[in-house]
Amino acid sequence: MCQMLAMNCNSTASINFSFTGFSARGGQTGEHADGWGIAFHERTGCRVFIDDGRASDSALADFVRSYPIKSKSVLAHIRKATQGAVTLSNCHPFQREWLGQHWVFCHNGDLKNYHPRLRGNYLPVGTTDSEKAFCWMLQELRSAFKDACPPSWKQLAPVLADLSRRIASHGTFNFLLSNGEAMFAHCSTQLSWLSRQHPFQTARLIDCDMTLDLRQTNSESDRMVLIATEPLTADEPWAKFEPGELKVFVEGAQVWSSTSLPARPPRPLRPARPKPPTATSIRAVQGVAV
C-alpha cells in the first residue's frame, strides 16, 4: 500500500530533511513507485506538487528536497497503486475548497466495494477509492455545518471520527486531512507520530545516510509534530496510533484523540531568549528544518 507523511508546527518550518528520507521510499528503499505528491499550506494559499513517477529520482521531488518551502502544515504521499491507474489524477494529496479554505487529503489503504452516493458538491476527478472517500467526507461535513463560517477543530473532530468509522467499515482507512490550521490523522492499521520541542536533539534518517542537529535549526519556542506511516528516524521516540483512533494536532501539539483525550488548547511554550545573530541563527531564520 501507500505511505504518508505530515508535519504540523507552531511556526513555519521546512520539511526538506524529513521529505528526503520519506521520498527515498518512493522507489529506492521502498516499492511505492506509482506517483507521489506533497502539499504546503501557506499564509495566502496552498502549494500542491504531484508527479506520477518515482519520488526517489523525480526532478520535481529533488526540487522539493532542496528548496526550503516554509509552512506550518504539510502533507505528503507516495503511492503504491491498489485501485486506479498510474496517472496524475490519481496522485495524492487531493485538494478541494470548503468554506473558503483549502482542504487537502491523502490516504493509505484499500476500500472494498466502496461506492458512496455523491450528490454533486464534490466529485472525484480520478478513479481511486481514496478520492471518493475524500469527496464524501467533505459532502457530509458540508451537510453537517451549514453556517458560512468554518467550524472549529473542536466541532469537526467528533464528526470526522464518526465519518472515519463509517468509511473504515469498507477496509483499511489510514488518512491525513488538513485545512492548514488543524491536522486530522486517522489510523486503521498503521500510523506513527513524533513530537519535537526544546531541548532538541540530533535526528538520523532510516532511509538515507543523513543526520540533522535540530538544535542548530530551531529555537526554544519551536514545536512540531511529524506523522508517518512508518517512523522516518532512528533514536527518536515515535509512538504508534491505536487502531481506529483519530488524533487532532494544532500548533505542533496533540489536542484531541478519539480514544483518550478531551478537547484542550495546546500549551504555550516559553519564548526563546534573544540571541546575537550568528551564522547558525541566520540559517535557522532562512528555513527551520525538520
UniProtKB/TrEMBL annotation:
From what superkingdom does this record's organism come?
Answer: Bacteria
Q: Name one GO molecular function term.
A: hydrolase activity
Residue stretches making up the Glutamine amidotransferase type-2 domain: 2-252
Disordered: annotated segments: 259-290
Q: Which SUPFAM superfamilies match?
A: N-terminal nucleophile aminohydrolases (Ntn hydrolases)
**EC assignment:** 3.5.1.118
User: Does this UniProt record's set of keywords contain Hydrolase?
Assistant: yes
Cite the record's Pro residues compositional bias ranges: 263-277
**CDD domains recorded:** YafJ
Going by the UniProt record, its keywords in alphabetical order are:
Glutamine amidotransferase, Hydrolase
The reply to whether Hydrolase figures as a keyword in the UniProt entry is: yes
Q: What is this protein called?
A: Glutamine amidotransferase
Species per Swiss-Prot/TrEMBL record: Rhodoferax ferrireducens
